[in-house]
Amino acid sequence: xxxxxxxxxxxxxxxxxxxxxxxxxxxxxxxxxxxxxxxxxxxxxxxxxxxxxxxxxxxxxxxxxxxxxxxxxxxxxxxxxxxxxxxxxxxxxxxxxxxxxxx
Amino acid sequence: xxxxxxxxxxxxxxxxxxxxxxxxxxxxxxxxxxxxxxxxxxxxxxxxxxxxxxxxxxxxxxxxxxxxxxxxxxxxxxxxxxxxxxxxxxxxxxxxxxxxxxx
DNA sequence: TCAATAGTTCAATATAATTGAACTATTGAA
DNA sequence: TTCAATAGTTCAATTATATTGAACTATTGA
Lengths: 103, 103
Prior knowledge:
2 copies of one chain form a homodimer.
Chain A: H1 14-21, H2 24-35, H3 53-65, E1 69-74, E2 77-82, H4 84-90, H5 94-99
Antiparallel strand pairs in A: 1-2
The structure holds a DNA duplex.
């Protein structure tokens, strides 16, 4: 059984959030999640078609462990949602401000 | 002669800015710069007393090459200023929003 | 039961961060 | 004008992180 690790709200850090978003590929993943209505599979959110799936999996793990997204398994695929509310509790307005400039 | 490299405004990237600020030490350096009125030497902005000066120098280079700070040599020391105006031209409001949560 | 799908984990290699040691440049004093 | 002190850079070595192919796990549908 694959167990996904998600930090609690109080464990989300500024450097962690910035670090997770400080990568063009991960910015595009999060941008795609917003565009495609927020709850999508990993491959659907992929920033480019030729990326190795292990790399994609790694990027999702980084986003997950920084508290940016929440991942749950539904059937054969993972569904990912942005943790906007949680991040806003910790850093009000920050996420929107950053994602305004993504893509 | 030491030549400092600074990107032009249009070469400042979102991932670059986020990457430069995605480090607790660098967040503290920038926080210290704001607290101590913006134009300070490297050692004055140091995030902790026991950091190797080569490491400190490295962090200032990261901040400089991301376009976060501008460095100039004045006498025996370096003076560093935040490039708030330049970053605001490229990403209006972003820097303030991030630094609101630093420290 | 078996193949297909979606993703994870592992191990190897490639890239970035940290640090001590040696260096450069500027100042101020003998 | 020489010499020590100060402030930082650069280099080389080690350590940590990212990327990827290959092998694995879990779920679905035929």
